[in-house]
Protein 1
Amino acid sequence: MSIFRDQPKAVWATAFACVVGFMSIGLVDPILTSIAEGLRASPAEVSLLFTSYFFVTSLMMLVTGWVSSRLGGRKTVLLGAALIVMFAGLAGTSTSIAQLVGYRAGWGLGNAFFVVTALSVIVATSRGGTMAAILLYEAAMGLGLSAGPLVGAALGAMSWRYPFFGTAALMGVAFVAIALFLPEQPKPKQKISLGAPVAALRDPGLFTTAVGAMFYYYAFFTVLAFAPFVLQMSAHAVGLIYFGWGLLLAVFSVVVAPRLQSRFSAIGLLSVCLVLFAVVLAAMGFASPLGIAAGVVVSGALMGLANTVFTEMALEVSAVQRPVASAAYNCVRWSAGVVAPITAPLLAATFGTEAAFLAAAAATLIAPAFLVARRRTLGRFGVAPEAAEAAPESAPASAPVVLAAVDGTAADARVLEQAIELARTGGSTVAVVHVCEEEILDGDAADATSIEEADAIVARALERLAAAGVEAQGEVVRASAAKTAAAILAIARALPARTLVLGTRHRRDPSNLVHGSVADTIKRSAGPALTVVMVAERETV
């Protein structure tokens, strides 16, 4: 795709560093048993690699926003990359499990600074719009999650130290590339205070979402940190198993979850997903190593769905600023990574392997039960998508209304021409709407267009209609990219509009790969009361 080929070197340098950063999540899975043998440590002691890493990461989520809003994107990314290089390299030199755990904590510090800023840096420096940047980030995340276990297995087969040295070397290359090619980034206009993330948890909806996610992530980290000890397989075999896990997690998070979100309520989707996950975990407790391996791979798909739905809820359930809500949510959910890695092997040593997996299954079931019990705090996320889309506060129309959906592309000219023709022949007024799409990522999100850009798109449309002598009104609404079609249809019902005019499916639109075509979804879902008119942009010679 041209959107990938035409990106500046700064974007590729940052995306490569993102791959290395996400690799660190599954990198150590294939070498956990080798570390235990090499350093004469118990499974519980080796699991502290995850505990220390996520303890620091969780706490630093309360601080990274404060730091990045003062240093700026470039300096924060370089700081995180430098810390990863230093502590990953030191981890490879460890002579005791205590040293390795300590260095792994430093690694978590670096990753906290890096990951929290990388998305905004890619968005700020990419060409081809925010969607191109988001796809690059999602591609980097998927590649890192799936490649991490393979790299860990390939290097770990020679020595458990080599994956750490390899990560340090790769991130060192990324650090140099970022330093050379990434220009200085403007600092955010609004700085984040140190106490803002903690204060944000006073919001009932955000608190409910974060605590529910914490219970689910206990099971997530049981699979990630404990399952490798009971697989009883070679480093290469474990690497392949977690490659399958990471691949399914990425695909279901990026491609499958958005399509399901447009059809089902958040609580309904999470409840089904987490109940299935609990069944898988319970079965793993009594399964053979091959059965456990299958459970690990299948759980990746369920985790991908849950991660995306929880993230959308966390970032949209309250009026808290997105960076602050993200920091508060990440702090709480990653705290499960402190508890689960050390608790699971202790339960297994005391009561048997099945106890560790059954405890994870119980935690998984607590998550949807907690959400359902507090669903009143979750607003639109607690009801079906049709009821969840808030209707705009429009006065009842005294004349027939034509709704024109504009998206800032070349197709807008044809959409407005058709709306003008329909308004003139039917004595109608025209309502213009632009959906400012929010792309949901793991623990973060990005707007496909800024509010300023969205306002400008609507303003240009209103100018064109006024010049044609057509009475018109316009507005910008926000919605997750998965629910753009539902948002437009909700506005059509609220006006109410008799006719909806919009562009046809955009060819070569990268968002179609992730969410499907908005035009096709509207055509399927509009119903008989609304006439949908689709127009194609003019062919260019």
Protein 2
Amino acid sequence: MTTTSNGGARRLRSIQGLRGVAVLLVVLYHVGAPIGAGFIGVDVFFVISGFVITRLVLSRSASTMRLSLRDFWAGRVRRLAPALGVAILLTLLLSVPFASPVGVQGDTGVTGIASVAWLANIVLATLTLGYFADSAVQNPLLHMWSLAVEEQFYIAFPLIVVAVLWWVRRRGKANRIRPFAIVVAIVTALSFLASVALTYSNLPLGVGPTLAFYSPVTRAWEFGAGALVAMLPALVAARRAQWLAAVGAALLVVSLVVIDDPTIFPGYIAFFPVIGSALICYAANSSGERVLSSEPMVWLGDRSYGWYLFHWPLIVLASDFLTAAGAALIALGIAHLSLRYVEDPIRHRRRWSKLSAPKLWLLTSVPVVGASVLLMVASSNHWWNQSVETYAKSVSRGVHPIQTLCQSATPLTERKMSECTFGPADDGEPMILIGDSNGGMYADMAARAAKKVGRQITIATIPSCQVADLAIARPKVRLTFAVDCHSRYKDTLKWLSTQPKSTVIVASGSSIPDLDDYILVDEKSRVYEDGADKERAWASSLERSYKAIEAEGHTVVPVELIPQWSDPDGTSWSPKDCQLIDVLRDRTDCESHRSRTTMDKEQRHTLAAMSEAAAAVGATSIEVRDLLCAGEECGTSKDGVGLYSDSAHLTPAGADLVMSRFVELMSHPPR
């Protein structure tokens, strides 16, 4: 994403124009423009960096067969660090009033420190578990991952160059290009294979695709493609070079259309934008390209680094008073000022010319680290404000020692379930709580209810896994979960077959039949997409599950689905969307309220399916919606007390609100 100085290599205007295309793709994608996979702009940047840096190091080492690592890295610091420091400081400043004190500010501070340490990709991989995850977009420094990958390339690549030059000098070779090209080709091929393997791997929690996306190892082949092109001689005539550029541009356009699943990217599909960019770079090296060399494109390319730095923080943090497009345009203006007053003067040594690179890095990094720590400390202490502390505690999932102990991805048949059995052993029928994290959120409350009435209960919940034999999917998107839910479903039934006759409480939080962007798939790969079709399929699946449980002598008691704050289009309420300024001004701005009629209508297919399945086996359900909604109004809070920690999970206070129904069930089981 950076513009290389011309120290030793002539500047190609068309490459600057290609930078303009790359940043435009990214920005248009982030503002929600209908351009398809605009995120491939980052891949274009990676190819450009490999191309430009290779030309630079080859030019500098042409006469001496040596490369000064100190000079190279100093040049990178002078080019990258000043604008990066300014951008992060501005983001941290804006995050004080306009980011949520519940998690987001702390994550922003951590990412800020990682960004100046050139480790943002590693930290973000841990924080987000995926660039395209819903929670990731709340981080205003999310885009720093790609800069970290580039910076890691700038550390590793010249080391390869120095090693090859040393070998060439030792062997007395005159041609340094061939061995260098062989090494780069090998690294590029291995990196591509690693990228494909990890992208399509089935590691838990989507670790494979996450590593493939964020890791410099799996992205190195994109830089390598640019590097290899830079080493090719300019053998193509100008007219043919224009054709190559046209083919490259066509591949970029095709990429925007055919890459429709970001969850399996980069993978082999990244081959299209990478090769397209490489062809354009080669054409530029041969003759240049008239459209990309035009003044508007070069102007935009010159400001691409700054625009990339500033656009995402403004889009995220100014969303309450600026449209995404408006924020992006303001960011372009800031990028222009950054180029004129920060980047060019320092890079060309018109300012701070006597400041060494290490001191310059410290000058730009120490304030960022200090500001990041202050933001993290203030956020963790709720800004020493009672309103902020009250809000943070009201939406917290709190401490759930029983859920923490007993909700596990480990199969039930492999667990020591005695550790998750609570209450006195008596002559009454024991109880078992199964389900996903929506069942787990009741665990501590259910254990207290059992103790209160003198009953025994075993907690046996599995995160992300409903008690059903249908798979949850999204069209053209591969979902990744911590466990194989279908195998856990079978294991749960097997474990239940070994238990004494019990009252089995089934609590799951899936509202898939009412979510437009999710589908259901059965064992025969039959797909259910329409709401009514999903309702029937879900009802049948639940009925089969309930019958299978009752066939083992148990009594099934389903728990009614809680009102959930997810819209059919996939958007949802989250306390992390609540800005600090909103909490200080009026905490009710952070709450969401809807009528009971609206909530029931939005989840009608799921509620109908659960009701139909329960009726089919004559099961008595635990009704909770009337307790969570005050009369005809449902809310994420009630009488100032937070009921939800996110769109689909209750806080301890929310779970306690329905405790009376669990006590009633345990006192009078439905036998």
Protein 3
Amino acid sequence: MNNNNLRLLRRWCLGLALALCGPAQAQLATNIGIDVRAMSMAHAVTADPPGIMAIHFNPAGLAKLEGRRMDLQFLAVDMSVESRFSAPPGYNVFGFSDDPVVCADAPNDGSDVCRNFRTSTSTIEGVSLYVPIVNDVVDLPPGPLMAGPIPSFSIKPAGSKFTFATATYLPMAAGFYRQEGDPGNFMGRRVALNRITYLSPSVGYQINDELSIGASIGFSYQAVALETDFRSPNELLGFARIVDESLCAPFKGESNFALDIILFGICRPNEGLGPFKSLAAMDVAMDQRFSPSYNLGILWEPSDRFAWGAVWHAPTKVHMRGRYKISYSNAAQETINGVGSSPTGAIALAVLGLPSRIGATDAGLINMDLTMPAHFQTGIKFKPTERLQLNIDAVWVDYAEWDAFNFQFDSTNAALALARLFSPGSTSTSLYFPLQYQSTWNLAFGAEYALTDRLSLRAGYEPRASAIPDDRRAPLVPINEARYYSLGLGYRWDKDTEIDLAVATLRSRDDIPANSSCAANCTGINNLVYNPYAGLDIETQASITMFGMAFRTRF
């Protein structure tokens, strides 16, 4: 029984790693909300870079800008994430089915079999952001996130072939918080992920009338923060509940030498473990204040009706450091401490290299090295008529770089001591977590129609592929395969001023049948990955809706 309990607690240690790397998956929303014109054309603008934000989409396009320019971008973003959990026929964990996530029976009604199942729904309450100045996560009021004005500047001296530019923008900004008691809190109660490029010195060079090249260096701040609860509904914890409620019932809370020797102290706890009980809660925050990156681009325009472009976003090394805190539940503390207080239990724990006693919390420093994946995009624009322009881009992102994550701790703790035994690659001060992500290709399509000499209408569509294998899907970041739709317009106010408007939406739906993903709902004694919804059917739905306005002027 001693070893069984240790294996059970090891599972939520691996869940810790899953939750840490889950927010990083928000990077799967590549290019979202960086430029309003690009947004309106589904980001298919590599051969038709959008003003100063060519810095990101293709810095070679900067060579087309004349004089001194300023762009101001305004964005409103509304995010909705919903997960639904339901019990398939025959659902149980070692004979128990009174899971409060899907059981509508009154709690502690004396029955371990659910008589009235329900479908529970998890939603997010609002947006959370990690704010560098205060070094903390801030929960914004429910409703859209407003950003702006977001500035960018460029200058091309008269007679020069060089254009110089810089911009502030958000390559990545995602986060949410849920209400207390939300069934999704076992996959993130509070999440924040930011990458803010605060300076991006860039240059575009016009080689000749047809060919341009460009480069951009980005200086960014990156942060990730997570608060989450942990549980582990599996057969071993179901067996632990049977032992606690049946075998230990006559001896509950008792301690004598013979009983401790024979039963390893497993009956000492006043509160035992169970498959549906919370085991722990975790709070972690990491950041890197200076994270450099670079982009390279090329643009070929042999005629007014055709152009080809390509951009390379180099892989970026990120070293984030921060703090963590793990708060153990009363049941977890009493079980470990009860086993460790018996002579035979203490010997067994010592042989395994595990602590014989844990406190209410473990806290310390944490860091990780992460490579943001390389991103290559190439595309064409062509004009079949004088007024109609069509853009097509191909997008590749090297998510295969995320084969595994490795977290380094400043000292050992109870969670690492357990994970070291059952997670290959982990040590007493590090935690190794495999991901097995895969690189993706997808196409993006944009169109622009010049209704008049001043007014242009735009639209875009992008079917996005998923980097997450089917057996690694989870409701923490439910953006897998997705569809992006956009509309917009551009209006030339005068010879020096343009205004762009856009609306766009990214939508993703997914079904995760019971026992199909070992990052959410796998069952079985030998399952080594955190599965807080083991045996349940999961449906996820995520949407990001964006409204944008850009003001562009020469001065």
